[in-house]
């Protein structure tokens, strides 16, 4: 398509871009806060993609086969809000006027669940790109699982906007390398190459040959596209569709384009233009309209509702044909895209808990987790496992796991579907990719690494909690109990610090049965969960049926005093591998005439949400308490108070066999018993 | 040099490599734990580097002008221990026999400060490479600062071993991109390209064209080097010295080379070979010696003490000549390489605190920090600032800051020295680079980002704490008080979770004077500190001279009750921007007849190390307490107990102006006063 051949159309398209520009300018101006530079710089790119390529239905943002759009440079949120507003999503102009105000649908950075049409929450740079890789991967795997000859019910693309910031972040390497290796050919990234970041001209701190870098990842790269030439971007998008690989479209742009005195400078990145410059921009671009005003003809041109309805209707016809031929697959597809658990789920969990209890195995909880996964996989085909190159240590694979892999196919290569992803040594990338998979829907992703390396992924865990994605993070080697690898590998503060992330559930089960329940709770939850699992064996604990049921409440009474109520009393609280220390200490103390209750607390985050009646029943107010966990002690003060006791580790670990370490750090039943005697004595 | 021309020498060199192999095998075998694959695969590379290139003096691991060697693939620690042992460091064979045992000098992963000759602690993959970039950057900047024509007293290289794991990690992108941009020509990375990672053949999850990727960063790349050909590696190292850019040497290797049945498989990565395979390896390589035995002639060939002593002596002669010509510079260089503060330091701090107090400014603490930096820079030329592309927000620059930059110089480009680094949007890379700078010595690095994005850097903060590096992390925008950017940018759990990292000091000052003291404490500390700073203005608080002195203790009494001791009493504890809420609440409560003490707690980590007498004097036992901080509440239970009160935020933030948010989250003086009345009532 040539812009010269259709001057009228070209002018109209330019006006569409300017409509985006001024909504962004006006939104930022009204908020007196925000980022105009990116929307002004990417307006034409947005027109090319949203008006000519993006398959979506503003009337139904949940249409399963829509294209996904991710604004990885999320500070340009006003561009996305302008697009959603103009194409016909439920985002009235009043919401644009309330940009960045409390409870508006237009928060400072895009938030999934807040604004219809926003696919993921972005702002922390680079993660949107990784989310998009997850979405593209979910699409590719779903297509291989559900499509049938002549029935391509899963067939959509994932488009991403990225800026220099995203591409400087390390996670861009992890995500792009994985996407290239897996040949995610429906992933298209549009790079806003404006040469400016907050500190100024990037050449002084970011001199990469980015096209060459992405080519090295096996991507198709479209170089030197004029990002202000809608037709050129359109051509590049057409080229991407034929590339057979993920595509990076490098768009040369001018940050803040349109602003006469601020374009091309970092001043325009993150602050309002100011009334004077706004007026100058209106004059320069010939935009006579009042703030937030877009002429009706331009609104009509932007509106994508009819087109979207038609596109979805066409897909629904095809889906009904699929349903006729493959009724079971169609029902299963719909269930999974709704994120519903299968009908037999509860029965399966009950059976699993019963069988696990009967087996009474003494194994590491990472091993218990592996056995649980195998049982769950029988009823949950949506389980999509993986590990950041620690499969044999995390025990995240199972019989029936099929590696997602690339198969050479002549000169080309082909992605083979499966349910297990070797993420490589990419903890942060893995976690953000899993978030993207969960957001796409269709799979329930889980992935493993060592607990210490949750640090590498931490902001993705936070984003999962903020977005409430159903993502399961399997963290094994959960204490100094991992032994010889030493302090770099031994978590000490991690269990506590993960529990501080709002909305993140953290489980540290003590044996096979608690591990099974932790998994069941994680699967059922509308939000992320971390499973902290031991490398070393932990003894099986016998429980009553009520106790097994109580595990799901996060904390419960595992053993209770049998001594007369006149005895001195103490409650021992423990998690994971330290529950056995508490039980051993209880035996000592009981022999010495102290009445002891042992509370197993596999999940403080779950326990904290229980009603006060349950919490007080488990931890009777006034009875002295001692907590034991192989981690920092301060965390436990909220349960034991200033007068209680905590047995833990406040320093880094050491390199030595596990048994030597538990002795060295005084993590013993004797230490727990001593601490219990101390607090009982103080309380007397 | 041709191996064919000198068959005897070649055989001897091969034996040197095999000596490394068997010490590694025997160490792992004795420990029944460890990673033989990498030492066996990199033995020849180690010979080429350590025997033919590395400038070091085993007798003095602290020689300032030694080459730095970093084992970024730290799981191969036995290779490094074997090298240190054989070249003559204070690491007797008994320590090798105690590999991975409690308190041995040979922990599972190399730890700086534990083993002489270990330059940085590695294990968490990719960070060693980033540390090395920091070391090379420190060298380059020191050379530009101290060298004079004819007097190159700073002139050494930084060598790094990396594996596939390091190169998959995102931080490798951040570090390599920065190193390429800054043309760190004395950085040489040797890549152990064995095609195997823990999960198996990497091609299924890591199909990068790594040489092309590094070329895209502006590196010189030596491709297709046979990593088992010592001469070929030697040639590549010679080539690197002339490259004028950082160099990546891609060595094709066989993991576990020498092990007849395990070489080339992932089984050899992280587990002992087993007695049978060890014997087979001895036979295959013709190594008849007993475990840990190395023939004397081979020991003599490896020993680098004489060569090292001579090299250092030669440097010392040159340094003495430098001293004659530039006595002040020589003294300053020695001071800085010792990590000592200047003689006028204490006076300068006293003057700074006095001036800051007199100025009585109401500014944001990030602004107070900037003013402090400017004052400190006058007496601390070693200050080396920077930001992860948020200079104007973090306010990490100052008048007198000179950007480290690249200047075009004909077809080539040249690094210009300075004291401010634009790290780009690379929080993790920045932090690990700063750790490397601190380990190198000569500079005191600090760098800024938003507090939320401390998540991205978290494991580097942990490593700083483990290594006790003097690194200062400046984290601004420290609460919902940052306003409209919303929950992705608003820290809630971060202050608390950073305080849980053992050995990391965390400061959250409430005004200009506390900010100045926080900086002074961070500079004086032998270990890392985080400064959590507000975006918004905070009122100046007047203090007595004793109170100003008490800030350094982390927590102190800011206002004390003037009401009779018979009154109901309460202690309010606050940090940072919430101190003003506590003061306002105190006014309300005092008016209502409650005796109130306000404790400012800028650093809980420092306060916790104070003697109990101080802590009890500040927080008198038995008096009810209320803590207020714009963050998760659970953390504060360790100070207020179960019966105390906490005013905070347990959910994610929102996008809105700061004032609206403080009201929305009920972070008000009224809320603090209400909570105080509640706990006073309960305690009655």
From TrEMBL, chains A, B:
It is an enzyme of class 2 (transferase). GO terms for molecular function: transketolase activity. It holds the Pfam family Transketolase_N. InterPro entries: THDP-binding, Transketo_C/PFOR_II, Transketolase-like_C_2, Transketolase-like_Pyr-bd, Transketolase_bac-like, Transketolase_BS, Transketolase_CS, Transketolase_fam. Residues 363-540 form the Transketolase-like pyrimidine-binding domain. Its cofactor is Mg(2+); Ca(2+); Mn(2+); Co(2+). Its EC number is 2.2.1.1. It catalyses: D-sedoheptulose 7-phosphate + D-glyceraldehyde 3-phosphate = aldehydo-D-ribose 5-phosphate + D-xylulose 5-phosphate. Binds 1 Mg(2+) ion per subunit. Can also utilize other divalent metal cations, such as Ca(2+), Mn(2+) and Co(2+). Keywords: Calcium, Magnesium, Metal-binding, Thiamine pyrophosphate, Transferase. Homodimer. Catalyzes the transfer of a two-carbon ketol group from a ketose donor to an aldose acceptor, via a covalent intermediate with the cofactor thiamine pyrophosphate. Belongs to the transketolase family. This is Transketolase.
């Amino acid at each position: 398509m040539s812009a010269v051949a259709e001057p009228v159309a070209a002018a109209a398209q330019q006006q569409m871009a300017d409509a985006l520009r001024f909504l962004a300018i006006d939104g930022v101006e009204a908020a007196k806060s925000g980022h105009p530079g990116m929307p002004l710089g990417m307006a034409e790119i947005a027109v090319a993609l949203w008006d000519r390529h993006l398959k979506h239905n503003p009337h139904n943002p949940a249409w399963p086969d829509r294209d996904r759009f991710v604004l990885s440079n999320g500070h340009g949120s006003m561009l996305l809000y302008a697009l959603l507003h103009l194409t016909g999503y439920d985002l009235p102009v009043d919401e644009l006027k309330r940009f960045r105000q409390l409870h508006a649908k237009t928060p400072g950075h895009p938030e999934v669940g807040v604004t219809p049409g926003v696919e993921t929450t972005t702002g922390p740079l680079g993660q949107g790109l990784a989310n998009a890789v997850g979405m593209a991967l979910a699409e590719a795997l779903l297509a291989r699982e559900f499509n049938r000859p002549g029935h391509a019910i899963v067939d959509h693309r994932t488009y991403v906007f990225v800026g220099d910031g995203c591409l400087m972040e390390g996670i861009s390497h992890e995500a792009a390398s994985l996407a290239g290796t897996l040949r995610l050919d429906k992933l298209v990234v549009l790079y806003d190459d404006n040469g400016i970041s907050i500190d100024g001209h990037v050449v002084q701190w970011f001199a990469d040959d980015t096209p060459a870098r992405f080519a090295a990842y096996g991507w198709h790269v479209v170089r030197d596209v004029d990002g202000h030439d809608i037709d050129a971007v359109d051509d590049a998008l057409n080229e991407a569709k034929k590339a057979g690989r993920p595509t990076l479209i490098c768009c040369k742009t001018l940050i803040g384009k349109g602003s006469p005195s601020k374009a091309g400078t970092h001043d325009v990145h993150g602050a309002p233009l100011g009334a004077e410059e706004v007026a100058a921009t209106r004059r320069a671009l010939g935009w006579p309209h009042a703030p937030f005003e877009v002429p009706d003809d331009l609104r009509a041109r932007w509106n994508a509702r009819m087109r979207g309805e038609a596109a979805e209707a066409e897909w629904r016809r095809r889906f009904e044909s699929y349903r006729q031929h493959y009724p079971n697959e169609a029902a299963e597809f719909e269930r999974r895209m709704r994120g519903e658990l299968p009908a037999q789920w509860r029965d399966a969990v009950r059976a699993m808990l019963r069988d696990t209890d009967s087996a009474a195995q003494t194994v590491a909880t990472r091993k218990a987790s592996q056995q649980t996964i195998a049982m769950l996989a029988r009823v949950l085909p949506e389980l999509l496992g993986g590990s950041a190159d620690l499969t044999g240590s995390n025990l995240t694979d199972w019989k029936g796991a099929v590696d997602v892999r690339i198969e050479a196919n002549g000169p080309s290569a082909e992605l083979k579907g499966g349910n297990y992803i070797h993420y490589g040594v990419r903890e942060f990338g893995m976690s953000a990719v899993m978030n993207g998979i969960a957001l796409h829907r269709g799979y329930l992703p889980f992935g493993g690494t060592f607990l210490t390396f949750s640090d590498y992924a931490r902001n993705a865990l936070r984003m999962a909690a903020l977005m409430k994605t159903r993502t399961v993070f399997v963290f094994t080697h959960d204490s100094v109990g991992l032994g010889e690898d030493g302090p770099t590998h031994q978590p000490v503060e991690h269990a506590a610090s993960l529990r501080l992330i709002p909305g993140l559930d953290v489980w540290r089960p003590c044996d096979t049965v608690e591990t099974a329940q932790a998994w069941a709770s994680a699967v059922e939850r509308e939000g992320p969960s971390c499973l902290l699992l031991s490398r070393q064996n932990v003894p099986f604990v016998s429980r009553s049926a009520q106790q097994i049921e109580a595990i799901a409440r996060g904390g419960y009474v595992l053993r209770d005093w049998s001594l007369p109520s006149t005895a001195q009393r103490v409650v021992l609280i423990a998690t994971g591998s330290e529950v056995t220390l508490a039980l051993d200490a209880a035996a000592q103390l009981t022999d010495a005439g102290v009445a002891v209750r042992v509370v197993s607390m596999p999940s403080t985050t779950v326990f904290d949400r229980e009603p006060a009646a349950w919490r007080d029943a488990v931890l009777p107010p006034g009875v002295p308490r001692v907590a034991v966990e192989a981690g920092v002690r301060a965390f436990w003060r909220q349960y034991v108070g200033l007068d209680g006791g905590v047995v833990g580790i406040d320093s880094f670990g050491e390199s030595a066999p596990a048994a030597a370490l538990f002795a060295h750090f005084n993590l013993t039943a004797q230490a727990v018993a001593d601490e219990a005697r101390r607090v009982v004595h103080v309380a007397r």
